[in-house]
Prior knowledge:
Layout: H1 7-24, H2 29-52, H3 57-78, H4 93-96, E1 99-108, E2 115-125, E3 128-129, E4 133-139, E5 151-157, E6 160-161, H5 173-178, E7 182-188, E8 193-199, H6 203-219, H7 225-236, H8 244-253, H9 263-276, H10 284-304, H11 309-326, H12 333-347, H13 355-375, H14 383-410, E9 413-414, H15 417-444, H16 449-470, E10 476-477, H17 484-502, H18 506-531, E11 534-538, E12 546-551, E13 554-559, H19 562-566, H20 571-579, E14 583-589, E15 593-596, E16 599-604, E17 618-621, H21 629-636, E18 640-643, H22 649-675
Parallel strand pairs: 4-7, 13-14, 16-17, 17-18
Antiparallel strand pairs: 1-2, 1-5, 2-3, 2-4, 5-8, 6-7, 9-10, 11-12, 12-13, 15-16
Amino acid sequence: MKVLDFPLARITIWFILGIVFFYYIKIPLFFYEIALGLSALIFFVLYFLSKRSKTFISFFGTSTYFISFFIGGITLITHTNSLQKSNYIHCKKAFDTPSEITFILREKLKSNSYSNRFTAIIQTIDGKTHSGKILVNIATDSLKNPFVIGSFIKTKTILHKNNSTKNPNQFDYDKYLEDRQIYAQVYLNKAEIKINKNIKRDIWDYSDCLHQRIIQNLEKTNFNPAEMNVALALILGQQQEISSDIIQDYQYSGATHILSVSGLHVGFIMLLINFILKPIPNTRKGSFIKLLSILIALSFFAIISGLSPSVLRSVVMFSFLAIGNHLRRAGNIYHTLLVSMLLILLFEPYFLFDAGFQLSYIALFFILWLQPLLKKLWNPKNKIALYIWNALTVSFVAQIGAFPLCLYYFHQFPGLFFVTNIAIIPVLAFVMIAGILVMTYAVFDAPPLFLAQILEKSIYILNQIIHAVASIKSFVILDISFNFYFLITFYLLIITSIVWLKKPDYPKLVLLLISIISVQISFIHTKRENETQNEMIVYNAKKQTLITMRSGKNITIFTSSKSILTNPKNNILNSYLVGNFGKIKSANQIKNMLFYSDKKIFIIDSSGIYNNKILPDILLLTQSPKINLDRVLEQIHPKIVIADASNSNVIQKNWEKTCYKKISLFMLLQKRDIIS
């Protein structure tokens, strides 16, 4: 039975298409309601007609897909918090003036050098009930004791809307937060906070208590902090305290997936439970006991790991796989996978646009689809060799499936990922089993010293192996330009290649050749698109001026920073180069006069010196020059005024007011001329 012949598979696909369509196409809410109502009416009419005559069955099937499409859209709308009247986004006053805000801390995030960060749920604003999720930033130098999840906090502050990306091709953090229904942030210090002694007792509070209990019990065994943070990431998916150097090592070695909870972690738990319960016979009653044990273990794991989205995805996915196995439906494992996806998206449709969700499901799909094919290439008789071969084939096909998505999102590829997986398989298996035992023990009491030391030394060895592989930088391919055209055509090529290899025939060969041509077309189109583009960009770079002029792929840099002149690549510029398939032609010290596309650009820097006889098209203000902008505008009459981030915020605001006054005066004079 083919996957697409399963009705639920097609329903899930149409449901997903509905989410995607209404995510990108913004349509008034009444349209959704009318469309869903009509499709539901047609659905029921065709259902009763199909009962009387078989000629209506195909029409009934089509109506099912349409109603699935609109249910997908309605699901997305109902989970968009900004459309709810009670959401704080509609309280405009809270964004303009300080307001009394109460909220409950929900989840601790990774801290930065400036602040401890949490997500929180708004309760009231100025005594009125509101709802919605926000980011809370609490200054690190004012935070002596960490706050408890579930704490009621009262403060008087202003809500700050999330800032959109200030430079081209940078990670859109504003969009990332919006997809998680977070539309604002608050910045606080301890003096501004009043904490209610009462704690909101819910599953999030119990989860945090368990998590803190595990840490405290591990600390009693003198567990090395660096190894403990890796253990918490490996076993529980808690990456808040792990160092950036260790994360970089895992990225460069191709082992990042083991730091975030995925199918690998949940799979180990299922294997461990099955191993413990192996003496129980596979009777109907015994199978039910095994299923119940697995579901309870996975639920408990989700709670102690903090109920993060990645944990919930993996737990739900493998719970359905366990249920399917219990119902003796291993042959329809694709259908079980689709059911788990449909259920997750029904409760949280925005997961569909999360990179972790996409990578989890695409990797698991390729494991189920392609791994059996590779497994047949070699069938070793030795059990150890067979285990290693199975682990390697699983890793390889998961990398094949995730390869285009990784290039699209992260623009890098660890060339030694295969070596990494060969080297860490024995250690990782031991770490996972020992880690699960230690973490389970730590929920109740401090684990035995010898067991904690075994886990600590194992993680130390694992980190050293990964560091050794990551240190071979020549095999780490960074800054790979990869756009959406490449993503689609590469997946088309991979899928058609596998379909043809599994059972070669002429129609499949034609599809393979078409996919090869589509990849070539995507390269040609991208090349032509890039070669015809010309643009000049003034970047938002703190304490420095950075300008690029682009002609096709060639990019010329003008900057006030000596470090960029010696090493042109920095985070801001690098994102632009990678996103536009560009290369640096030259890097130059910025001058007071530039020309671009017949436009004269005059730059006033910290010296404040300018020639009033120059009549530029564009005036660029940098390095906070001490000038009277009113006088400058009257003397040189620029059409456009630009102030970059090298200027102080106060001066920029004053300049903005001056420019608005000039615009208002110009419009008034223009209006008088028209009247006269």
